[in-house]
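Thread title: Can someone regenerate the structure for this chain?

I was given the following input by a collaborator and told the matching C-alpha cells would be attached. They weren't. Posting the sequence so someone can regenerate them.
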Amino acid sequence: MKLVFATNNLNKLKEVQVLIPEHIQLLSLKDIGCLEDVPETQETIEGNAIQKAEYIKAHYGYDCFADDTGLEVKALNGEPGVYSARYAGTQRDANDNMNLLLENLKDKPNRQAQFKTVVALNLHGELRTFTGICEGNITHEKQGEQGFGYDPIFKAKGFIKTFAEISLEEKNTIGHRGKAVKQLVNYLNKI
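Best answer:
Regenerated them for you:
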C-alpha cells in the first residue's frame, strides 16, 4: 500500500516514518511532486487536517493522510491552538512563537497546556480522523535541543524533561502525534 503523508515538515515526516509499518510505503509531498503550500485555512485543527487530506486526493489522486497540531494553553483560552505555527506571525518561526507564548504567560500562574493532533485519512474515497492528546505544562524557559516547534517549553504530565530533552522514541510513546498515528496504523492494519 502506498500512502502520502501530506506534509513538507521534515521533522514531522521523521517522527511519523518510524511508526508506519514496513508494508506501507510512505510518500512525502516532494515524492509526488507537490511543491506548493497545501491550504490550511480552517478554523479548527480537525478542519485543517481534513482540508489537507482532501486537497492531495483531489489534486494528485493519491490516498493520503494529513495532520494538524495545535498547542492549547488553558490560561490563554486555548491559544495558540489552530494558529500554533504562525502564532507570532506568518514567518512561522518556532523561537518567535515560543517567545511570544512565554511573554503572554509571564504573569499567569496556571501553565497547564495540551498538544492536540488530528490525523485525517483519505483512503479509497472515505475520510476518517484520529485524535491524539498529550497533557502537560509550559515551562518558564526553553530547555533542550531536540524536537521542533514548542518542544523546548512543553513538559508532558508526569515528566521532568521537556519534549526537546527526550528521545524521539520516548516522544512517540507519550506524545500527541504518536498517539494519533498509532490509531491510524491500528486502523490500517485491520483493513
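Helices lie at 10-17, 45-60, 94-104, 168-174, 176-190.
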